[in-house]
Amino acid sequence: MSTYFPSGRGLAQDRKWHVVDASGQTVGHLASEVAAIISGKRNPQWTPFMDMGDHVIVVNARKATFTGAKSTDKIYRRHTLYPGGLRETSVTEMFAKHPERVIEFAVKGMLPKNKLGRAMAKKLKVYADAEHPHAAQQPQNLDFPSRNQK
Predict the structure, then answer these.
(1) Where are the beta strands (DSSP E) in the chain?
(2) Per the CB 3.0–4.6 Å rule, which of 18, 51, 75, 100 could disulfide with 126?
(3) What is the mean pLDDT of each run of 10 residues along the chain (150 residues)?
(4) Terminal CA-to-CA distance of the chain, rounded, Å?
(5) Could you tell me if residue 100 is inside a domain?
(6) In this structure, what CATH number is given to the domain that contains residue 121?
(7) What is the model's pLDDT at position 147?
(8) What was the pLDDT predicted at 150?
């Protein structure tokens, strides 16, 4: 018996498109599920060094929630590369200005930090509201239960 080994041919053509509704979902749980789909961990033919994942569209990012004190205590930091250039933004400010970035940062933080992870991150599309421009790809709704609703 030989072991099955996937080739890299036809990966881009076989990718599916999924739509995930973020309303009422916790950001961390949503991000971990989306990262698993984007990286291909839910694919039975998953290979660690190949991009086997599907495309994911996250809608209603504005309605996602944080648990505990993260909504007041969590801070995003970046540096301008100039002296004294550390900039801090709280989660409430980020949700008010760019709610889609909160989901993007959470998912990208769960992907590998290399070329493969950057390629995986390109398959993530996040929108603050319910509309998205990807109707031509015929995305399927993807539901996973919220941990709060059990």
Answers:
(1) 17-21, 55-59, 75-79, 86-90, 124-126, 140-141
(2) 100
(3) 82 92 95 96 90 96 94 95 97 95 97 96 97 95 71
(4) 43
(5) yes
(6) 3.90.1180.10
(7) 66
(8) 47
Task: Please count the structural domains in the chain.
Answer: 1
Within-domain flag for 43: yes
3-state secondary structure at position 14:
coil
Q: What are phi and psi of 65, to 5 degrees?
A: -130, 160
Q: Cα separation of 53 and 14, whole Å?
A: 10
52 within a domain of the structure (yes/no): yes
Residue 95 lies in a domain: yes
The CA distance from 82 to 111, in Å, is: 28
Q: What is the pLDDT of residue 135?
A: 95
Residue 37: half-sphere exposure toward Cβ, Cα within 13 Å: 24
Q: What is the pLDDT of residue 100?
A: 96
CA–CA distance, 135 with 133 (Å, rounded to integer): 6
Alpha-carbon distance 45 to 27, whole Å? 28
